[in-house]
Specification:
48% helix; 2 domains; 335 residues; Beta Polymerase, domain 2; five-stranded mixed β-sheet; 8% strand; 5 strands; 12 helices; single chain; alpha+beta
């Protein structure tokens, strides 16, 4: 596309500074996002996109531009915004924060309205950056995962086309309405769970009862708190898989309850688990099965990570199917 020469010339004179700002912002935000587990994406505005933006008539001078460099931090939910904005305000000089839903819109309008942080890199006395870099504003968009997915899917379909189609704009708005509905459900996830009618499911019910039983043993001091798993849901899944390895799927829920009850009885009678602080909680049922406290339970078909704790603490002398940390081919040097 054609670009007016005045825009081209000024863009060229600013390009090196914009690139420096982009590099500084990215070097600050990307490691922080990696630690938080937030997806990060940044881009400099293209010359063509800039030219179209200036032709919108919404800007009266160059210094009003705030997204020559723009980046996106994808947040799980809107509840993560405040901590992110706090970090941005500490890392950069805030210019403006445009909150979600702060722009005026009719109740029947659905469009992109995520929170955006406008800032500049910090310059001044004692800082090793040229003063001119502090004049370039950049934008950090803070959409949720669902909002980001919507924008990625619809942007090219609606705005990067060779025509204007009312139906495409309408479809994009319909999808945004669906995203807002999802966001509302997520924001009130715990409160909204109560409106879901409970349905009986033997496997789920057994997992729930097993988790509650182990939590009670920890609360009562019969199992040390240091063995609390990072994910109770994953612990329940692993425990069910262990039980299912020596029973059929239909019988597994009751077998899980039997195993859990036996462990609870043994824990309360002997107190032997109250002083165990190494290994994992999963090793307790493995040790109990190995000891034969539940009739018909065995470890013959389940892959288990063998360890010194299993042997010295839980008395498991031999694991039938041990997990291998190294392939046999690597040991022999073949392959």
């Amino acid at each position: 596309m054609g670009v007016p020469s005045r825009i081209l010339n000024h863009y060229s004179s600013e390009e090196r500074n914009v690139e420096a700002v982009a590099r500084l912002v990215s070097q600050t935000l990307r490691p922080w996002c990696d630690r938080k587990g937030f997806p990060f994406k940044g881009r400099r505005k293209s010359l063509q996109s800039l030219s179209e933006k200036l032709e919108s008539g919404r800007y009266s001078k160059w210094s009003e531009l705030d997204d020559l460099y723009a980046c996106t931090i994808v947040l799980p939910t809107p509840q993560h915004e405040e901590a992110t904005l706090e970090f941005l305000s500490q890392a950069f000089t805030p210019v403006q924060v445009r909150r979600r839903n702060s722009t005026k819109k009719a109740p029947d309008v659905f469009r992109f309205d995520s929170t955006r942080f406008i800032g500049t890199v910090r310059v001044g006395e004692g800082l090793p950056l040229p003063q001119e870099l502090g004049l370039i504003k950049f934008e950090v968009q803070l959409p949720t995962a669902f909002e980001y997915a919507w924008s990625v899917v619809t942007h090219d379909l609606v705005y990067k086309t060779d025509d204007f189609d009312w139906r495409k704009a309408r479809m994009a708005a319909l999808l945004k309405a669906a995203v807002e509905q999802i966001e509302l459900l997520i924001s009130g996830f715990s409160a909204n769970v109560g409106i879901i009618p409970q349905s009986s499911h033997p496997e789920s019910d057994a997992k729930h009862e097993a988790v509650q039983a182990f939590k009670s043993l920890i609360e009562e001091g019969f199992i040390d708190r240091q063995l609390t798993p990072e994910s109770w849901s994953r612990f329940a899944d692993n425990l069910f898989s262990l039980v299912a390895s020596y029973s059929n799927r239909n019988a597994a829920p009751q077998k899980l309850l039997d195993l859990t009850a036996a462990i609870g009885e043994r824990a309360r009678e002997t107190g032997e688990y109250s002083t165990i602080v190494s290994g994992s909680l999963f090793q307790i049922p493995v040790g109990c099965i190995s000891a034969g406290i539940v009739s018909g339970a065995n470890l013959s078909k389940f892959v288990i990570v063998d360890s010194v704790e299993l042997r010295d603490i839980h008395g498991v002398e031999k694991v039938p199917r041990p997990f291998r940390f190294e392939d046999d081919s690597k040991k022999t040097g073949s392959g």
